[in-house]
Amino acid sequence: MIEIKNLTKIYKLNKKQMKESKTTDPIKTAVNDLSLAAKQGEIYGLLGPNGAGKTTTLRCISTIIKPTKGEIFVSGHEVQQEPEKVREKIGFLTGDIKLDPQFSVDYMFDFFGRLHNIPEDKLKTRKEELFAYFGIKDFSHKKIKELSTGMAQKAAIAVCLVHDPDIVIFDEPTNGLDVVTARGVTDYLKKLRDEGKLVIISTHVMSEAEKICDRIGIIIDGCKVAEGSLDQILHDTNTEDLEDAFFELYRIQKGGK
Amino acid sequence: MSGIKQICGKELARVFKDKKMIFSVFFLPVIIMVGIMTLVSSLSSSAQKDVEAHNSIIYLQNAPAGFDDFLKAADKECDIYTVSDRAGTEDMIKNGGADLLIEFPEGFLDEVSGYQTGAPVPQVKTYYNPSEDYSRAAYDTVSNGVLEAYRQLLLSDRVEDMEGLTVFTVNSDNPDMVIQDEEKASGKVLGMMLPYFVTILLFAGAMGIGTDMVAGEKERGTMASLLVSPIKRSSIVLGKVFSLMIISGVSSVVYVGAMVAFMPQMMSGMGGDMGLDLSLNSRQIAMMAALLVAIAFLYSAIIVLVSVFAKTVKEANSYVMPVYMLVLVLGITTMFTTKTPHEWFYAVPIYNTSLTLQGILTQEVTMMQYGITLGVTLVLGAVLIGVIAKAFESEKVMAI
Fold first, then answer.
1. Total domains in the fold of chain A
2. Chain A closest-CA separation from residue B245 CA (Å)
3. pLDDT, tens digit (0-9, with 9 covering 90-100), for B33-89
4. CATH code, A19
5. Interchain proximity A97–B6, CB inside 8 Å
6. What is the ipTM of this complex?
7. In a domain, A183, yes or no
């Protein structure tokens, strides 16, 4: 499970970055005192607009960046104390993370399998299983650079699941995928959940969150403004659907405007 | 350890499994080098042949009777003219139309034959243009050779016993005049060139690949996938540095091998013995091997360090250039050091390896100097690895 306690992430902006985000304040708080807990056997969705701090939160969990304040426990391991242990437990995928274009899908799968210390025979069965599920077999010998966006995304998903992680973290899992592939991915996430794994995703697509998330945490300006199942959130905000609920929360957060 | 091995294996696969990469990293530089050197040497040898084949155009002023024939006998291939317009002849020499002007004083032979003790000695003047190859060659053969022979001829008319004038000769019949340790001598020639080439080649071989290995991986967005795998940052760094060492090592072996193999061909036109038939004893080989491994380690670490701080390959290449220049300059300095180096020179990284490599070849390096060099190189390399690993931890540097 994942337990985030009072996570705060502050970036110091340089002059160029300040100019880009049209601010004179050199300090940007991306995540502000955020706490949440997600259990095994559920799909937890972080929902929020662009720049709300979803990706930053997921990156802190994945040990790619360090929290400024607060603690994050992944299966009992703290991200700053035991980053290698944390990375063993998770599979992390975002649109920014890409596979080496010069290598074949086969090679990358084996390479990451070995980095995770997976025995050869187990690696082989795992490959069979994942490649069959995502329909990668036909192009597994091709170099990543020869693949289409959808094929490359499938390959990246298969590779990040090579070690059968207990916790799967997907930053915008269906971003850039066609409907058929996107459905394949969300179905697989449900399958993982049913196997007792924790899946944590970030999304700004309301319908996606509505359909697959067991629990949703809504983040606006780095703060968690609501959390719970879809029904709970709708009930608390007294709204009909998630989009309305979101705008209600957004209105309150921005001071009623 | 397993992580280091995997990362290293992948980086090596990137180069060795790609035929284009193998060609561009290992063979293209050799082909270019051998091609250029062969071209230069064949051009210079054909230029030399051209000068030899050229008929010298020689103008004579107030030439004594019989000098024409004497000149013809000494240099069959020359065309001889008599000066009619002095200024015009000088212009021709300046423009390359004529090669040499020999000016005798008027009444030269009378002056010579009528010589009394104490009287002024007649002077023969020659004029040439040193920036013209033909003219310079004519000057060399005629002014230094033919005129000297002519002087001897005239002198023999005056003096009966020429031997009496010679008094003594120097080394006219002494084939054993050079006493030196042949190994040390050939070591000197090679010692001047080899450290220079090895330093450059090791660095150049690692440069392109190294920047791509780190900055390229950042640019392509593939670094993050390594960063979320359960291996230590230092394993990633060491894996990359070791693979870079292997690649630069292999490329420098290929380059040096090609250089030795093609040396006769490349140097045919240059003339001179390159002293490459050097025999090394096993101690020298072991010392050199250990030192080369150490310097490959240091260079790889430097290149990776520079690349870590760059966002793109282009940026990394521009950062690495000044370092390359520094390595070049430090390599060159050992080619021109004649003084015995101070002990502390052996504590200056990069420079010390050039010095020590040279010292090993000439067998002049002490164990102490060798130890300092090896130690400094390895320690600095290790420190840089530490810095790189720290940089890998920094989210700012990794820009993720």
1. 1
2. 21
3. 788 878 888 888 888 888 888 888 999 999 888 888 888 888 777 888 998 888 999
4. 3.40.50.300
5. no
6. 0.86
7. yes
